[in-house]
Amino acid sequence: MAESFKSSIAFLRTANSAPTPTIYEAKDKMGLGISPPLSPPQSDTKSIDYKPSADNIVPTNKEIKVNWEGGYTFAPIKEWQVSRAMTKRYGDDLYRTAVSDVVIIGAGSAGLTCAYALAKERPDLKITICEAGVAPGGGAWLGGQLMSAMVVRKPAHEILAEVGVPFEDEGDYVVVRHAALFTSTILSKVLQFPNVKLYNATAVEDLITRADPSSPTGVRVAGVVSNWTLVTLAHGLQSCMDPQTITAPLVCSFAGHDGPFGAFSVKRLVATGMVEKLGNMRALNMNSAEDYIVNNTREVVPGLITGGMELSELDGANRMGATFGGMLGSGYKAAKEAIKFLDAHQIVDGEVVGRKETA
Ligand SMILES: Cc1cc2nc3c(=O)[nH]c(=O)nc-3n(C[C@H](O)[C@H](O)[C@H](O)COP(=O)(O)OP(=O)(O)OC[C@H]3O[C@@H](n4cnc5c(N)ncnc54)[C@H](O)[C@@H]3O)c2cc1C
After folding, report:
1. CATH of the domain at 287
2. Are residues 7 and 129 in the same domain?
3. Which atom of ligand 1 is found nearest the CA of 136?
4. Would you say 183 and 176 are in contact if contact means Cβ atoms under 8 Å apart?
5. Where in this protein does the record say 2,3-didehydroalanine (Cys) is found (predicted)?
């Protein structure tokens, strides 16, 4: 039924426009039953005599104008050009990042700071970020209690200065006028690094592991399993709905507080027996919480570094509320730990094959 519908459309197209037989019609006369696809690949159009129909005409002589008095005129475009502009790049990215040097889970304040510091320090690394939300930024679009300003305790203001985020100095801490100014600035910097690819609306559903006799649990983390978040939401984490994989010697996880997606990696480590149990985030104590999170951002199991609020779920550290220096510092520290890790291991095709000899 569908075929005959397609054939009749094809007939109408050719009957209106092409007296000479197309390659498809010629082959059809040979009894092969081939009809032209509704959307022929560009390479095919060279051999097919497509006469433009009314809705098929690209007005090539169209004048492109910037005229704000009612004459603003766009350059011409075909719908398939838009589709191909996106799919070609997305496909190339998927192909390229299937083996990455570092995968960052979560583009909140900690994950973005890690990506920034790592990409800046090491332009040779292929850094892939998976963010479950459509909008990267996690909780850092607002300050506490849904207010605008973001408080950052010194010395983490140095990170703000390095990234180029303006702030007001109030002595022991600084204030960014709007948390969104931090997030939008660091996001724009991260996305401009040629060695960073961000997949948003992409949830990490599972971790990839490899046997590793040198690990206390006999396994190491070796990448992530991802899926479009919509698919994950419809079918649940660790579903069998055709996920994608990204192989990497190192995963840096900043999945935030516990929640439907939050604290993803550390919960998965417990579920798979790589970590015994979660400490669960403790009550709020700004003074102790921020130092703790920065200083304890570390490789928690072989191949996986955790920081940000996800670490407080693992270690049972205090929460810190509306002060973000700990998140920035944790991301920065994770980047430093990641470089140490990559420099210390022999890596082949995205997999750790041993440690480098130390002099
Ligand atoms: C929407 C939101 C609003 C918040 N508002 C405030 C506030 O007003 N004041 C305050 O003090 N604190 C707020 N928080 C708390 C906030 O979590 C921390 O202050 C801080 O932002 C934590 O930083 P983080 O980078 O560790 O994690 P987050 O900022 O929570 O970022 C974690 C990121 O990881 C992503 N993620 C999680 N799991 C996965 C997965 N499996 N795959 C891919 N991506 C994943 C999330 O989508 C998120 O973007 C908010 C948190 C959220 C999520």
Report:
1. 3.50.50.60
2. no
3. 49
4. no
5. 240
Q: What is the total count of domains within the chain?
A: 2
**Most informative mutation of 128, 130, 142 for ligand 1 (most atoms within 8 A of CB):** 142
Whether residue 82 is contained in a domain is answered as no
Q: 71 lies in a domain? A: no
Kindly report, residue by residue over 34-76, the tens digit of the pLDDT.
444 444 444 434 444 445 455 555 556 678 889 999 999 999 9
Q: Cα(138) to centroid of ligand 1, in Å?
A: 4
CA of residue 123 to ligand 1 center, whole Å: 27
Going by C-beta distance under 8 Å and a sequence separation of 6 or more, which residues neighbour residue 44? 37
Q: What are phi and psi of 145, to 5 degrees?
A: 50, 40
Q: Taking the model in full, what pTM does it have?
A: 0.84
Q: Is 210 exposed, middle or buried (0-12, 13-18, 19+ CB in 10 A)?
A: middle
Residues 340 and 217 placed together within one structural domain of the fold: yes
Rounded-to-10 torsion of CA 105, 108, 111, 113? 160
Are residues 344 and 223 located together in one domain of the fold? yes
Residues 44 and 115 in one domain: no
- For the segment 341-354, what is each residue's pLDDT rounded down to a tens digit? 999 999 999 999 99
